Amino acid sequence: MHDGLECGDLTEAIIGAAIRVHQSLGPGLLESAYETCLSHELSKLDLPFERQVALPIEYDGVRLDCGYRLDLVVASSVILELKSIDRLAPIHEAQLMTYLRLSGLPIALLINFNVSRLKDGIVRRAMTRKNTASSSAALRVPPR
Questions:
Q1: Other C-beta atoms lying within 10 Å of the C-beta of residue 132
Q2: Structure confidence by residue, pLDDT tens digits, 5-39
Q3: Distance separating alpha carbons of residues 109 and 111, to the nearest angstrom
Q4: For residues 77 and 95, what is the distance between their CA atoms, to the nearest angstrom?
Q5: Is 141 helix (H, G, I), strand (E, B) or coil?
Q6: Cys staple from 141: which of 12, 17, 20, 119, with CB 3.0 to 4.6 Å?
Q7: Number of other residues whose CB lies within 10 A of the CB of residue 45
């Protein structure tokens, strides 16, 4: 984690940054606009992150680049998958869980900016000790 931040504190900081972006821009923009603005907010928080991180697949003992990209990876521990769509579908959560499994990272946030209240567009998933992705017990959303 970054500078002693635990996973919960880190995801809380990320969600707070996403809420600030959403409050400023509102719903209805392209995903790329939210990614750029969220990157700016993460920089202001001095959180290290990478954009459009390649996610290769290992198949038949060979590492293959299939073109998958993680929107953002924060502090080498939290995957951010950003959307700007009418509604999240089960396939989006399945994608998030696959990203967790393939990357080996502990936490992922699926954030849909195309909602009235951003907290209604956030899904948090974590890797369990058995190396399977599962839903987390609670999502802590910082106060506005």
A1: 10
A2: 576 789 999 999 999 999 999 999 999 999 999 99
A3: 6
A4: 17
A5: coil
A6: 119
A7: 14
pLDDT digits (tens, 9 = 90+) for 75-125: 999 999 999 999 999 999 999 999 999 999 999 999 999 999 999 999 999
Pairwise CA distance, residues 80 & 73, whole Å: 6
C-alpha–C-alpha distance, residues 46 and 123, integer Å? 24
pTM across the whole model: 0.83
Is the pLDDT at 4 greater than 70, yes or no?
Answer: no
Residue that wins the pLDDT comparison between 38 and 64: 38
Q: Which of 139, 105, 136 is nearest to 122 (CA)?
A: 139
3-class state of residue 26 by DSSP: coil
Query: How far, CA to CA in Å, does 91 sit from each of 40, 96, 127?
Result: 28, 9, 18
Structure tokens belonging to residue 17 = 């940054």
Position 26, amino acid: G
Take residue 31 and report the two structure tokens written for it: 């995903």
